[in-house]
Amino acid sequence: MESVPGHRTVFPRALFRRLRISATAFEQSCPAALFLLAAVTAVLSVRGNGFPYVLIPAASVLLVWALIPTRDALVRFALPMLPALIAALVWSGQQRNFIADEAGRARFAAEAELIVDDPSASARSGEAFRVRNLQCRVKRFRYGANAPWIEFEDSKPRVLLDCGRGENAIAIPLGFGDTLLATGVFSAPEPPLFPGSFDYAAYLEHEGIYELFRPEPESLEVVLHGTGFRRALYDLRDAALAAVCRGFRSVENARMAGAMLGGRRIALEKETRAGFLSSGTIHILTVSGTHVGIFSSLLLFLLVWVPFRKRCLVVLAPLLLYALSTGMREPAMRAYVMIAAFLILRSLLLATSHINTLMLAAYAILVISPASLLKPGMYYSFLSVALLLSLPRDVGSIMLGFLSRKLSQPLPVRYAPVWRIRASRLIRILSSAFAATLVASLGSGVLSILYQGLFPVSAVPANLLVMPLAVLSFIAAGVALLFSWAGPVGLFFSGVLEQVFRLIGWLGRFFGGLCETAIPRPPVWTIILFLAAMFYLLHAKHWRRAACAAALMTALFLFWCFRAAFFPAEVLILSGGGTGQETAVVVTDPALGRADVVNVPDYRTGSVLADYLHERGITACRSVAVSSGRKASFDGLDTFAAQIPVIDIHAPSNALSKMPDGPAVTALPYRGAISSCELSDELFSFSIGTIDGNLLSNHTGRGHLTLRKDGILFLDADIPQTSARRLHIQPLESITP
In whole numbers, what is the pLDDT of the chain averaged over residues? Predict the structure, then answer.
């Protein structure tokens, strides 16, 4: 009996001793882990909000010293912290809204001189090279023609230039480095309409952009054309794209080629983009690890006559040139650093684990761009690569051995016929590709649930078919560029390339519409637990442990899928801003998968409502009712219907011809089968299930909403111009937004 207290006293020491042993073993097997920890610590230590985050490096040094009490480990942690801290401090000093600081307000009219700082900008004319929004740097601005200029000498703040759409689009082609003079309005990005909706302002802030600039198209003037290495490189890229796309008949295919081959950020059709997003192949539209990896593999194949060690170094220069020509955005930068780290170590004949190389590349990326730690793309990239590296190297042979035992007895190689040897090789290749695609798609799909509320069910077959076509597009583009001078021959290869992109677009739309699962955004801890179980499954040595990990993953996935069944029915009331916009009302019942909407007044509201329905696990909208024939009632319906299929649209007769058309959209006059609607002067009455509402028109600057459930009044209130309210229907209670 006396030994029990003694054991309780010793237990924490024994636990700490085991922790030390485990930490030391991990540090010896993966020393780059301390590099990565140093970079993460440096980025976290420069955060603001009044907390003394500068204490984080000191605390982390003490923690490392306590767990790994060796001089080498401490040096491997402390020395990499210095460049990481310097990079993080420089990045932190740039995170200010210099324009608002100088102007003293977030919205004002001014005359500004801007420098185009967007790799997607092109001096070539035509729809295939037109960009809707351009990133620019403000050189100076003034409030009026006679006011003094406010100069920005050292750090020129970045803004997003709205190039307009339709008749209001800027007609002048704008290239990288061009200096513009224009009169327009500076404004801060609008905050989210309600907590949990997409925060566009935070997204731009991570890109270092705090202001939008909307110029008057007729006032814009190019005062100086851009020069320098980057401008010449982007002009050369655009010339190459124009050469390989000169035989294209579809502007959409040319835009897709510009995005996939040249990294140009061009808006595609909503249906195409939604298809790629739902099918889990959206990564194909951005130059990232896939494209840089394909380009490096083709270079290594073409330079096969060069000795291996030299080839690993020779490839780095053209690969860097390609990444720079695409704008060296963060996905391309991350991919180049990963591949460069691997090739340099191979050329030096340094043996290390692939996970160690991956962590070393992550350290380099955080030193180059500390803001990467705050962006989802960083986690997508490294999680997918880490899962691929965790796969058994002989997964193809394992699958082949399993099939051989199940189907027939394996024969020795010297007795096997040729067709069987070739079939075995094909099975190994296909099974390895399937396993890699499954693991990467599952890992990225879990993050898609967290960030987008969508799980791409068809990601595996879609990627298995799209990835070979992506490789083929690079080969076909190279051949088309090589023969671009040859007249009809060049046009023929350009036409072949267009068919490749046509097929890629068709596959994205087909698999995107085939199956889409909207899952409410789950708690972060469940995502971490799922990924931990997934890594454990890949490294499990016994089938029972693997079965336990698979069972845990299945239970978590079912928990995510069926959470929506326990969400209460809810009414969302939105008034997004501008005078004259009508109030939007949304009635949702996640347990039944139903949603009904009244009014989608603008693009922003349509996008927010689609995110809201995805967040509540709803993939289709039963009906949309429009309260008037004015644009302020349905201007965002196109955007909403592109993301959420709409079964029926109820509108007055003067608005029916303006409704969006599509396979999942039916425009009906008032008194439809699902929702009954009635308009009398400024009063709009509607009925959705057991909810009856009266909405007073807002186009005079005032709005009033009355809602009844089963005849019982539960809302009778004026609607401010900018407001958001969420009401539970059962029980009837208000949720503070």
Answer: 81
